[in-house]
């Protein structure tokens, strides 16, 4: 279920397929990593082999950008639906709310993820948000300890790209978390 654009993998799953996969990954105790791919990241990866490797290491590379859809169409691929980082985050919240899974928000300036949490709870009153942490805490051991104590099924990491992808790959083995998503500036948007 992947297509390659200038060496970068992109998943051809729709929201509906991703929804099912994510819940099934959690149920099977599988660790998965979601990264949003847009043409800008594909171009950056041409000059940065470490970034290219990092993006291809993800479990689901969601097609976040009409450019990716267009390229798929031109090359006879199957990517039929744009899946944006923020909509994927909302999909995770909806699924977590429906299936009783927990979520942790990590990233953005102090207070922002807290405000995003309030707004998400207004939209999904049953959502179990087990923790919030800003993205400017320097003590990495403390961050890991807080996340592991909260044991979220889903961790949304909003540190900007490629910082968040680096952070996820470096830390996922040591975290008691199933689904990781790099969400960029989504907490800023959701806090408004
Ligand atoms: N950020 C952070 N810690 C850092 C650097 C950035 O938490 O050390 C946050 C920043 O506050 C913002 C997000 O990362 O909320 C980056 O947003 P941007 O829209 O630039 O990311 P992109 O989606 O373009 O990767």
Automatic annotation (TrEMBL):
It comes from the Bacteria. It catalyses: UDP-N-acetyl-alpha-D-mannosamine + N-acetyl-alpha-D-glucosaminyl-di-trans,octa-cis-undecaprenyl diphosphate = N-acetyl-beta-D-mannosaminyl-(1->4)-N-acetyl-alpha-D-glucosaminyl di-trans,octa-cis-undecaprenyl diphosphate + UDP + H(+). This is N-acetylglucosaminyldiphosphoundecaprenol N-acetyl-beta-D-mannosaminyltransferase. The lineage of its organism: Bacteria, Bacillati, Bacillota, Bacilli, Bacillales. Its EC number is 2.4.1.187. Keywords: Cell wall biogenesis/degradation, Glycosyltransferase, Teichoic acid biosynthesis, Transferase. Catalyzes the conversion of GlcNAc-PP-undecaprenol into ManNAc-GlcNAc-PP-undecaprenol, the first committed lipid intermediate in the de novo synthesis of teichoic acid. Belongs to the glycosyltransferase 26 family. TagA/TarA subfamily. It comes from Halobacillus shinanisalinarum. Pathway: Cell wall biogenesis; teichoic acid biosynthesis.
């Amino acid at each position: 279920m992947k297509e390659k654009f200038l060496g970068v993998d992109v998943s051809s799953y729709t929201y509906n397929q991703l929804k099912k996969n994510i819940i099934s990954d959690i149920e099977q105790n599988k660790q998965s990593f979601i990264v949003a791919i847009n043409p800008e990241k594909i171009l950056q990866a041409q000059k940065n082999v470490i970034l290219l490797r990092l993006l291809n290491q993800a479990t689901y590379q969601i097609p976040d950008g009409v450019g990716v859809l267009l390229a798929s169409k031109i090359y006879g691929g199957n990517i039929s639906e744009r899946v944006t980082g923020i909509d994927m985050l909302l999909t995770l919240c909806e699924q977590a709310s429906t299936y009783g899974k927990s979520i942790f928000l990590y990233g953005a300036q102090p207070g922002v993820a807290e405000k995003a949490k309030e707004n998400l709870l207004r939209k999904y009153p049953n959502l179990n948000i087990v923790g919030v942490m800003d993205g400017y805490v320097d003590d990495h051991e403390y961050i890991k300890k807080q996340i592991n104590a909260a044991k979220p099924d889903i961790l949304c990491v909003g540190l900007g790209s490629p910082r968040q992808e680096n952070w996820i790959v470096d830390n996922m083995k040591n975290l008691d978390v199933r689904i990781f998503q790099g969400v960029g500036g989504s907490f800023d948007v959701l806090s408004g």
